[in-house]
Design a protein that fits this description.
The complex is a heterodimer. Chain A is mostly beta strands. Chain A contains no helices and eleven strands. Chain A has a single domain, classed as Immunoglobulins (Immunoglobulin-like, Sandwich). In chain A, the strands form two sheets. In chain A, strands 2, 4, 5, 6, 9, 10 and 11 form a seven-stranded mixed β-sheet that branches. Chain A has a four-stranded antiparallel β-sheet with strand order 1-3-8-7, with no helix packed on it. Chain A starts with a strand and ends with a strand. Chain B has one domain: Immunoglobulin-like (Sandwich), CATH 2.60.40.10. Chain B is built from no helices and eleven strands. The chains are: A mainly beta, B mainly beta. Chains A and B meet through β5, β9 and β10 of A and β4, β5 and β9 of B.
Chain lengths: 117, 113
Amino acid sequence: SQTIHQWPATLVQPVGSPLSLECTVEGTSNPNLYWYRQAAGRGLQLLFYSVGIGQISSEVPQNLSASRPQDRQFILSSKKLLLSDSGFYLCAWSLTPIAGGVADTQYFGPGTRLTVL
Amino acid sequence: QKEVEQDPGPLSVPEGAIVSLNCTYSNSAFQYFMWYRQYSRKGPELLMYTYSSGNKEDGRFTAQVDKSSKYISLFIRDSQPSDSATYLCAMRRTGGGADGLTFGKGTHLIIQP
């Protein structure tokens, strides 16, 4: 069965510091990968998605970036955090119907709670 | 008008009651509909998905889609305190691709013992 891991679970960082959040998926190959941010009262906001190694699409302009160095690894980064970057960051994966997935149904990881002070 | 509207609640009901959660949407291109359950400080967990109009049942949960009204529902029978969570509806268009899902903001459900 497939599992998705995220770390760290919680993180407190000062404004202006760098960020690196990691997500890995086990038990599947060539998944689509997603980064979301969930802020209080604002729902889930799609930040980045990737259909393959080195292929990243950005949905929202911001000071965050994403990379996919390996098939099942997705990294969210920032060079300098802002207060507004605080939130709950979720990684998700899906398989396209061609690869056996259903409607690109997405499965979420446990999340990273980031507080920028 | 937002693409997906969902009442944030909170919705508080006694244990054993039937719960009805709903979303409305504006984009008639949506074809796949999902419900996620999210416990506090956890990632969303997929509960149900349906394609196009109709009903789908899984244990105590029933998902219903009415495309003519652009309205989807999730019913929970014999509700339990463990059902207390935020329920998110999500939907996507046809055609595949990795453009993500469109989510409602979630309804906070409280089941009173």
